[in-house]
Amino acid sequence: MIFQTKTKTPITPITETERSAFCREETDLETKPLVEETKSKARWQKIPIEYMRLTPDELDTRISKSKNKLKEKIIILGHHYQRDQIIKYTDYQGDSFKLAQYAASIPELEYIIFCGVHFMAETADILSKKHQKVILPNLTAGCSMADMAITEDVLDCWEDLNELVGNNIVTPITYMNSTAAIKSICGENGGLVCTSSNATEAMKWAFSNREKILFIPDQHLGRNTGKKLGIKLDEMVIWNPFKELGGNTLDSIKNSKLILWQGHCSVHTRFNIDQIENAKKKFPEINIIVHPECTMDVVDNSDFVGSTEYIIKTISEGAPGSIWGVGTEINLVNRIAKQNTDKTIFCLDSMVCPCSTMYRIHPAYLCWVLESIESGKIINQIEVDKKIINNSKIALNRMLALE
Ligand code: SF4
Questions:
Q1: Is 86 in the pocket of ligand 1 (CB under 6 A)?
Q2: Which of 125, 128, 225, 318 could form an SS bridge with 132, CB 3.0 to 4.6 Å?
Q3: Peptide bond into 137 cis (omega under 30)
């Protein structure tokens, strides 16, 4: 047998090396002029200097004015992990799929300004109408997890798995947090996309058709979901894209049910058991609620586990006076706390670490893209290749058929 995967030097995505760029000990996440924020050790898209110097108040006036002028043509969407100073300008907020679905439901608007990260803007482009233009205010707003699954590596893995176990034995499932190219590979090969709310249903569907699953790119969501379905840990293998056969033996792959791509979220893997134990010592009656991108031990030691929308709903419906230790992104945790003043709500991680790529959507970028549209210039448009759109839609539609 000739395998495509070879052992190579591991490459860490730049978005992952920059993951701590905005971590701080104090809880101040107030927006400063971009010229100050760009002193952090992260890449920022170049922007005219005029915008870099504007104060938050000046930006506020200009964004509001521009938004008002363009109101017949644009919609501004905001992911829950965006900073408050962006959320306040958004017309609709949600998780990645909810936002993309919403984008698909408003064909009358020409411009979709997507305040989120790159893969989300791609999904909005896939689901929106041809005449609509999707704009990502800052092109360096990527996602470290999506960047851990490179198209060529996934294709090599796919070829090797088929060579080793045969065709039509493995179903590829990709989490929404992946590039359009990976969604397309799944669509083309009998697979589908899933979100953190329907990963269980997606796996059940896949197992009803084929024996094995290749789950890309989040190993933790894959493992936590597989465990929930009763798959034993020794029936799961990790696929390390930098090693031949993903670092596995032929037998371990043949005996596995779930092949987990070696990817993770740099925000959710910050949570650990010590943080949960400390929170429980301080508040014995606390409810621990975390996102399934957290590691298995964190998930196993939590009272509630679910998607971003689930976390928001569960806490909001909690009893007045209840206490919540939350394992998800800090901008969202702070916002839930502000909206639920009858409860005690805090992030399990005492270090304040926003998602470093989401955080790069600074109001100066929003102002820049809006004023550019006003002057007839479209910048930062996200356009997915036509063939990729078609195959990605197949994978997304298979997911929609689950619900
Ligand atoms: S929170 Fe994690 S998965 Fe979400 S955009 Fe940030 S790095 Fe990516």
A1: no
A2: 128
A3: no
Q: Residue 11 above 90 pLDDT?
A: no
Please return the burial class of 317, using the count of CB atoms within 10 Å of its CB with bins 0-12, 13-18 and 19+. exposed
For each of the domains in the chain, give its residue range(s) and CATH number, in order of start: 32-38+45-142+357-384 (3.40.50.10800), 146-265 (3.40.50.10800), 268-347 (3.40.50.10800)
Nearest CA to ligand 1 atom 3: 265
d(CA 185, CA 191): 8
CA distance to 20, 83, 274, 276, 326, per residue, from 350 (Å): 14, 18, 12, 11, 11
Residue 52 confidence (pLDDT): 96
| pLDDT for 225 beyond 80 | yes
Question: What does the alpha-carbon distance between residue 142 and residue 149 come to, in Å, rounded to a whole number?
Answer: 13
Cα of 268 vs centre of ligand 1, distance in Å, is 8
Question: Ligand 1: does its nearest atom lie under 6 Å from the Cβ of 120?
Answer: no
pTM, to two decimals: 0.95
- Ligand 1 neighbour 143 (Cβ under 6 A): yes
Residue 147 near ligand 1, beta carbon < 6 Å:
no
Distance (Å) from CA 146 to ligand 1 centroid: 8
The span from the CA of 45 to the CA of 220, in Å, is 31
What is the side-by-side order of every strand in the sheet holding 236-239?
192-194, 170-175, 212-216, 258-261, 236-239
Interval between CA 264 and ligand 1 midpoint (Å): 9
Mean model confidence pLDDT for the chain = 95
- Residue 403 — very low, low, confident or very high, per pLDDT cuts 50/70/90? low
Separation of CA 182 and ligand 1 centre (Å): 17
**What is the per-residue pLDDT across 150-198, written as a single tens digit (0 to 9) for each?**
999 999 999 999 999 999 999 999 999 999 999 999 999 999 999 999 9
How far, in Å, CA of 361 to CA of 114, rounded?
A: 10
At residue 351, does pLDDT exceed 90? no
pLDDT tens-digit map of 40-99? 888 999 999 999 999 999 999 999 999 999 999 999 999 999 999 999 999 999 998 899
Could you tell me if 94 and 118 are in contact, meaning their C-beta atoms sit under 8 angstroms apart? Answer: no
